[in-house]
Amino acid sequence: MKKTLIFLFSTTTFLISCNRGNDTATSPKYQSLTEAVYASGNIYPENEYKLTANADGFLVRQTAFEGDLVTKNQLIFQLESVSQDARLEASGNILRQAEANYGENSPVLAELNTQLRNARTKLANDSVNFSRQKELYDRSATTKVEYERAELAFQTSKNDVTARQKALQRTKSQLYVDLQNSQSNFRVNAREGDNFRIKTFEAGKIYEIYKKQGELVRRGEQIALIGDANEIYAQLAIDESDFVKVKIGQEVLVKIDVYKDKIFKAKVSKLYPKLNKADQTFRVDAEFADEKPNAYYGMTVEANIIISQNERVLTIPKNYLVGNDSVWVEENGDKKKVRIAKGVENLDLVEVKGGLTEKSVLVREN
């Protein structure tokens, strides 16, 4: 017998294939009975994220719109950044000057090197003069005053060369520090400038844009909603009383309003343990198994999560139940009340696990 999917607006439902009897007397029948949990929810794309602004500014440029496919790191929005552009330009000028001051053709270092060379030349001359004066003084061929004057000039030149060497090294070190600081400042301003250029994190489809060109955008405001255009899932809500029955990997039959009577197959992929106190439901995600619906964001769905499938169980019409677990049966022309052991049930049928057989005759209570 062909099984038919039935979506019932109740908390726990069961999928069956049978016809309900209309006689006042009937007998239990063996037939297939499938237990399922009803769920409702929506379709969402995988890897969903929202682009947010990292700076204040007016939206002056937009390169993509709703429904467009975008790539990773694609520039989507540009915010006005006059003051930031000025800071970036200023830091760039300072960096170029620092690079010139520390480079091979540095005018600052060239001047200090020239001064050092001149000092070394003077030291060489003063050294020769001192040596000559010392030789003359040792032979008593010159006065002590001349000898001491030559010695003082030599020591002064030595000290001047040492001082200029230290000044050159100190200037080099300072210029290197200035260059590093300028590079860091430029990188900071460049990164700050990136805050005015809003790019995608991952490839996907733009589902919604919250700001229009020309509008003021504040830091932290959301600008666009983006998600994977190829991978989607069903986000379902299940009543808390049914949540313990649901397990990862269970089959899910999904009905989507826009597809009318078409049924999509999915599997439970994730269970969320936190109860939504607003409607007393738990969240369950289901991934589509084979054919997938189009990736329209937020489409409403109804689903049956298959809990168990019983191909052949003894069933009775539910409207023959008396109370919760009894039925009236006819035996030898007399009616008597019999207690039964129930299994799964739906709006129409109840599984009988004990108390009746196929030959039992059920009657309604008068």
Short descriptors:
366 residues, alpha+beta, Elongation Factor Tu (Ef-tu), domain 3, OB fold (Dihydrolipoamide Acetyltransferase, E2P), 3 domains, six-stranded antiparallel beta barrel, four-stranded antiparallel β-sheet, 36% strand, disordered N terminus
What does this protein look like?
The chain has about 375 residues and is an alpha+beta fold. It has three domains: about 10-45 and about 230-365, Efflux pump adaptor protein, beta barrel domain (Elongation Factor Tu (Ef-tu), domain 3, Beta Barrel), CATH 2.40.30; about 50-80 and about 195-225, Beta Barrel (OB fold (Dihydrolipoamide Acetyltransferase, E2P)); about 85-195. Helices cover about 30% and strands about 35% of the residues. The protein is built from three helices and 21 strands. The strands form four sheets. It has a six-stranded antiparallel beta barrel with strand order 3-12-15-14-13-16. Strands 2-21-17-18 form a four-stranded antiparallel beta sheet, with no helix packed on it. The longest helix is centred in the middle third of the chain and has 51 residues, at about 145-195. The chain is rod-shaped, with a radius of gyration of 44 Å. The two termini are about 35 Å apart.
